[in-house]
Amino acid sequence: MQVEWLPNSGMMTDETPKRVAVTVPSLDSLLSDLQSHFESQQGFAIATLNLDHVVKLREDPAFRAAYLAHSHVTADGNPIVWMSRIAGAPVDLLPGADLIAPLCDLAAATNVRVALLGSTDETLKAAASALMSRHPGLDVALCMSPPMGFDPSGSLADSYITQLADAKIGLCFLALGAPKQELFAAHAVSKTDTVGFVSIGAGLDFIAGTQKRAPKLIRLIAAEWLWRLLTNPRRLGLRYARCIAVLPQLFWSALKARLSARRAP
Q1: Burial class of residue 200 (count of CB atoms within 10 Å of its CB; 0-12, 13-18, 19+)
Q2: In this structure, are residues 70 and 46 in contact, taking their beta carbons and an 8 Å threshold?
Q3: How far apart (Å, rounded) are the C-alpha atoms in residues 152 and 197?
Q4: pLDDT block averages, 10 residues each, the chain of length 265
Q5: How far apart are CA 35 and CA 112, in angstroms?
Q6: Which of 64, 75, 119, 236 is the most exposed place for a label (fewest CB within 10 A)?
Q7: What is the CA angle 260-261-262, rounded to 5?
Q8: Calpha distance 169→84 (Å, rounded)
Q9: Domain boundaries 36-256, corresponding CATH code
Q10: What is the reported pTM?
């Protein structure tokens, strides 16, 4: 059973009810599926669900529509993992930043060309160099840094999509931040069926060293959110307060899903 991440989320899309759901149970299952996509040159889009996204999904119809256009959704955040377990649908924690290394290994092994889109030119150059050094055989063939005010479905976005197709890119990491990266991915998969898009937020900044991620021990005790809050309270204080506010409703939804599963014949 799945948690109802959105209240009354039986939205109609092409006359079929669809719900935002975590669709990736584990890293192994994701890599196995993506290997098939790479080998058949079939595109995809991966979104990483966290509490901030849940809040945005409830408020922004365009963001909801973009999420529903993604082929894969992972659990990015311990509360998403915990609620899924309560609901009886356990999933692994798979943040966007943690997907970069295994996907680069897979791309190198399958001779898939990679693109980086987002952040700054300096960050992209440093990240591309680091990734090719860490993953022998990886081909980071294209780096694109959109200007301020980038429209994820505008003419420049279409130009980027054309460049990806012309360069025969099979995997594109998007470091645009939410909701822009998810909006771009949804737009892009409607234009090309050969490129895989993965939204990774600040992942390239971590690799390039332009932002510092919480130490591994902090992440292991599920306190990365607190680390980020303490390092940037002015920007993140209200965001995290709104995330905490949805937890009681999500817990009740998860519990109802678990109880419904037990009552099912």
Answers
A1: buried
A2: yes
A3: 13
A4: 75 58 97 98 98 96 96 97 96 97 98 97 98 98 97 98 98 97 98 97 95 90 87 91 95 91 72
A5: 10
A6: 236
A7: 90
A8: 34
A9: 3.40.50
A10: 0.94
Kindly give the pairing relationship between strand 11-13 and strand 16-18.
Answer: antiparallel
Q: What is the pLDDT of residue 203?
A: 96
DSSP secondary structure letters along 44-92: EEEEEE-HHHHHHHHH-HHHHHHHHT-SEEEE-SHHHHHHHHHTT----
Nearest to 73 by CA among 133, 6, 120: 6
**In the numeric block, which tokens belong to residue 84?**
């899924």
248 preceded by cis ω (within 30°)? no
The three state secondary structure string of 87-130 is CCCCCCECCHHHHHHHHHHHHHHCCCEEEEEECCHHHHHHHHHH
Q: What is the pLDDT of residue 16?
A: 46
Task: Tell me what pLDDT residue 79 has.
Answer: 96
The predicted pLDDT at position 264 comes to: 67
Residue 117: CB partners within 8 Å, gap ≥ 6?
A: 143, 144, 145, 146, 160, 172, 173, 174, 175, 176, 184
**C-alpha to C-alpha distance for 113 and 194, rounded to whole angstroms:** 11
Which of 80, 88, 95, 96 is CA-nearest to residue 247? 80
pLDDT given at position 265: 63
Determine how many CB atoms are found less than 10 A away from the CB of residue 40.
9
Residue 205: helix, strand or coil by DSSP?
Answer: helix
Residue type, 212: K
> What is Dmax (Cα atoms) for the chain?
58
Tokens of 122: 């300096």
Contact 91, 44 (CB under 8 A): no
Query: How far is Cα of residue 195 from the mean position of the Cα atoms in its chain?
Result: 15
Count of other CB atoms within 10 angstroms of residue 163: 14
